[in-house]
UniProtKB/TrEMBL annotation:
<dbReference type="InterPro" id="IPR000073">
    <property type="entry name" value="AB_hydrolase_1"/>
</dbReference>
<dbReference type="InterPro" id="IPR029058">
    <property type="entry name" value="AB_hydrolase_fold"/>
</dbReference>
<feature type="domain" description="AB hydrolase-1">
    <location>
        <begin position="79"/>
        <end position="285"/>
    </location>
</feature>
<dbReference type="Pfam" id="PF12697">
    <property type="entry name" value="Abhydrolase_6"/>
</dbReference>
<protein>
    <recommendedName>
        <fullName>AB hydrolase-1 domain-containing protein</fullName>
    </recommendedName>
</protein>
Length: 367
């Protein structure tokens, strides 16, 4: 038997070797001037891919203003349900790889990229936001109605591509409204009650889940209170310092991540601390991850691809395995050397899997 120290050393060696692999296969170290959002904007302009911003007020009685982006001109719509707190730029390496494989991608499809309520300007007109999986699923319906109002009646999304929280939103939505989408691509998904299984990558630990969830809820509540104090501003300053940048670089190296991941993490934190409301919205949405999925979510007939990372400490690999065991028409694709950020680690492989689903046809008609 190996000791814990030996296991950790072997894991670190494997991840450093993975970093070397990235460097040998074209990944480059970006300087501090690199900005993922600006790079996404530049790339879209260079490729002549149109992007339009939309916002509207929901028709329900919550008076929520929702925002989404529309990218491309294709007749088929596919929704990108992002990870919690992340913006569209996180998918830039995958978009580049997808376009290399299919230069007509954005003339065949139109990508709909919503912002979750409470983030990036989406939220309650009176400043209040109710965060739950059912509310987020309802927002998907509102966005579909708005973005397809000039299309044929009853048109749904060809596919929903959901990462992390987005996968949970997708499952919640299509369970209640199966015809919202024909196909599902679930990246690092959770089967619900996510806080109960956090930091348990290989197997959920019996009797521990409730304690983990309670501890995380208490921590998130404490952090939310801090957003009203001067401590929030001090943390914001700390996350923009050179010392924190060096920490991200070291974390990226020891974690085996691509060298540019530090720049993506840094931009993510800039977004998190762009305003106190944004920080509070993120914390509220994280709490919604502990919502339970309906039992019917595990019996969906949608053609689905599920990709999970074996070393994902946020949503353990067993979530994807269980979903594929239960779902009628799902394919499971585990990734041995990957984390929760596969879209940055293995964009070429992920692009191939997404395109295969987008370009496939349904095997079974939905009942």
């Amino acid at each position: 038997m190996y000791s814990l120290t030996e296991i950790l050393v072997m894991f670190a060696i494997v991840r450093v070797l993975q970093r070397i692999y990235y460097l040998l296969n074209g990944h480059v170290q970006h300087g501090r001037a690199f900005s993922p959002p600006h790079e996404l904007k530049r790339w879209l302009k260079e490729k002549g891919i149109p992007i339009a911003q939309h916002r509207f007020v929901c028709k329900n009685n919550q008076k929520i203003e929702l925002r989404y982006r529309r990218i491309g001109t294709g007749p088929k719509l596919f929704l990108l349900a992002n990870g919690v707190g992340t913006d569209l730029f996180m998918w830039l390496p995958v978009f580049k790889a997808m376009l290399r494989r299919n230069p007509r991608l954005f003339t065949e499809f139109t990508l709909i990229a919503p912002s979750y309520r409470g983030l990036f300007g989406s939220g309650g007109i009176d400043g209040s936001v109710e965060a739950s999986m059912s509310c987020l699923a309802g927002d998907v319906l509102e966005i579909l109605a708005h973005c397809s109002r000039n299309s044929r009646e009853g048109q749904g999304f060809d596919s929903i591509v959901g990462w992390s929280m987005g996968a949970q939103v997708a499952l919640t939505c299509v369970t209640a409204h199966p015809h919202v989408a024909d196909k599902l691509f679930l990246l690092n998904p959770s089967g619900g009650r996510t806080l109960h299984t956090a930091f348990q990558p290989f197997v959920p630990i019996p009797y521990i889940g409730k304690s983990v969830s309670s501890a995380m809820r208490a921590l998130l509540a404490a952090l939310r209170r801090l957003t009203f104090t001067v401590a929030w501003k001090r943390v914001k300053t700390a996350t923009s310092s050179i010392y924190f940048r060096l920490f991200l670089e070291l974390f990226s190296l020891l974690g085996g991540f691509p060298p540019e991941l530090g720049a993506y993490f840094e931009q993510y934190l800039r977004d998190v601390f762009s305003s106190r409301a944004q920080t509070r919205g993120l914390l509220d949405l994280i709490l919604s991850l502990d919502d339970k999925l309906p039992d019917a979510a595990f019996l969906l007939e949608h053609k689905s691809t599920v990709v999970s990372s074996v070393s994902d400490f946020l949503t353990g690999v067993y979530h994807g395995m269980f979903l594929c065991t239960a779902m009628i028409n799902a394919t499971f694709k585990p990734v041995l050397f990957g984390s929760h950020f596969l879209l940055l680690e293995w964009p070429d492989s992920l692009a191939k899997d997404v395109l295969e689903l987008l370009q496939s046809t349904k095997k079974h008609a939905l009942r």
